[in-house]
Amino acid sequence: MAEIRVKEHPLCVLIIPSLASGQLRASLEQEAQNHGWSYVAAGRSLDDDVISPQTLIVSESVSAFKAFPAHCVTIIHTDPDSVVELLWQMDPVERRYLVGRASIFLAEAEALAREGAKVVRNPVNLDLGAPFRPISLHKAPSDHPMGVLGMFDELPCRPGCVTSWPPTLFRYTSAPTDATGAVGDIELVGPPRALVFGPYIHLPTGPWHLALDIHIEVEDTPISLTMEWGDHFDSPACPVRFKNSGFYRLDFSANLDASRPAELRISIPSASLHGRLRILGATVSYIDSSNFDISN
Question: What whole-number distance in Å separates Cα of residue 285 and Cα of residue 296?
Answer without folding.
Answer: 14
